Amino acid sequence: MGHGTWDTAHGTWGKANCPHYAKAEHLADYLQENLPSFRVHKITQHPDKWEQWLHDVCETNGWEHRQSPIIWRELLDRGGKGQLLGGLNEFLEYAQRYYGITSMMLSEEMLDIAEENLQTHLEIAKEDEEIKSLIKPMQIWITSASGPICYQLIPLLANGEVFGMTTEISIHLLDTDQFKEVLCSIIMEAEDMAFPLLRSISEHTDIDEAFIEADLVIVLDDVPLNLEVQSLENYIREVSEICQVYAPLIEKNAKSEVRVISSGNTFANLKATLIMTYGPSIKPENIIAIATSWESAAKAMLARKLNMNTAGVKDVIVWGNITGSNYIDLSHAKLSGYDSALWGPANFQRPLLNMIYDREWIHSEFLSAQSSLSSRVRRCTGMLPAHAVATVLQYWYHSSPPGEVVSVGVLSEGQFCIPEGIIFSMPVRFQNGNWEVIKELVIDGTTQEVLERLAHELIQEKLVAIKEIKEIHPYGKS
Question: Are 148 and 112 in contact (CB under 8 A)?
Fold first, then answer.
């Protein structure tokens, strides 16, 4: 054949954990090192993907082969389709016949190298996925995106502090067609700011194409409450209609690990509960409601009373229905950096209730002012709720400050004797991309009674929503 006069390329393909492939690879490497005209190209496949991959290769090349490895050759200066040699036995015979070389590798060595090959293949695959994740931007969908919260949120998401300075993002703004011009204006302004990590920003008004490839969905839909105009049941019906449309689309179009955040000024808990109800394949632990606006507003009120920086007020807990009847719990709150006669190291903290000597103020003004606190939060034009969403996202992806309590609406599993199956705001910590309820927190009998009352309200709200949605068809569709 004159095989020694032409450069010859050989392909060696096999299952990563195949001992026969390990022996063929060892022999091919030896031939390449010792024969100047011999070239080898090796490909390993995960065992789970091997059968389909082999079928596709053979179909493309018109080959018949059923086992690992598969080996072919071609003459580089002649071109054309490769010639199938066969499996390990055929390759050993070929090497012996043309080069007078064979492999004496023992079975035990073959098994050891096969195991090493599999581990190497898995490590390389993991590295490739990590590289791809850096190249492929995170897909973020924001609903009701024409509103002020979204406008304030975009710069916070795009500056790199939330997801990290190596994570590019693509933002998708979703709203109805009547707000298309507003969305386009927001996009132009965001593009003018030239955020290095903002790969793209786009507007969407076709609901059927919503949430495609979404990694994160931020639900900002609100219904302006005015109980003098219509009943609470009618407002709940509106929320139910929205969620019954969103949830199946998230299931259908978003990624399997999609995370969903419910925010806004009304029905934050209910929106999260209904998305979970109508989207049962969405992981429950990936659906949360934001309580940080109320938490921040309460801390600010306390800081003004104590004449200190709001950032020094820690572990104020928001229980219950975030945008409805909630309970601001100060029993675990602490102060850091409070200016008094007693000082300590930078991490020195003191119980907040020990520092407020005017207990009458707590009962007569702070607790009674919670309705006005809620009113103030609802009047916020966007900066506070946007910051709340960004803060919780940063904690979710990068962990919350060690030792600090964060209030988040999550699915109850019976913690603190709260009934299961409702989204209830409670104390959590974020760590390594997950959250967990701080179950070791001790609550007194009075707080327990309050939690029972708040849970009852949320249960009734959920029952009304499900009852109402059964009586209607969303958007008039059958």
Answer: no
Q: Which two tokens stand for residue 406?
A: 């964060």
- Map residue 15 onto helix, strand or coil: strand
pTM of the model: 0.70
Three-state secondary structure call for residue 314: strand
HSE (side-chain half, CA atoms, 13 Å) at 36: 2
First-to-final CA distance of the chain: 73
Query: Do 440 and 451 touch, CB atoms closer than 8 A?
Result: no
The total of other beta-carbon atoms located within 10 Å of residue 47's CB is: 14
| Omega of the bond leading into 385 within 30 degrees of 0 (cis) | no
Residue type, 177: D
CB 432 within 8 A of CB 402: no
Residue-wise pLDDT tens for the chain (478 aa)?
Answer: 233 333 556 677 788 889 998 899 888 888 888 888 888 888 888 888 888 888 888 888 889 998 889 998 875 544 456 788 899 899 999 888 888 888 888 788 888 888 888 888 888 888 877 776 667 899 999 999 999 999 999 999 999 999 999 899 999 999 999 999 999 999 999 999 999 999 999 999 999 999 999 999 999 998 776 666 778 888 898 999 999 999 999 999 999 999 999 998 889 999 999 999 999 999 999 999 999 999 998 898 889 888 888 999 999 999 999 988 889 999 999 998 777 656 666 667 888 888 877 666 776 666 655 555 666 676 676 899 999 999 999 999 999 999 999 999 999 999 999 999 999 999 999 999 999 999 999 999 989 999 999 999 999 988 888 776 555 544 444 3
Two tokens at 3? 């095989």
Dihedral over alpha carbons 436, 439, 441, 446 (to 10 degrees): 120
Q: Tell me the residue ranges of DSSP E strands in 46-186.
A: 70-75, 83-86, 138-143, 169-174
C-alpha span between 73 and 76 (Å, rounded) = 9
Biggest CA pair distance of the chain: 102
Cα–Cα separations (whole angstroms), residue 200 to 52, 143, 158: 36, 17, 10
Q: Say how far apart CA 409 and CA 425 lie, in whole Å.
A: 4
* CA dist., res. 93 & res. 55, Å (int): 25
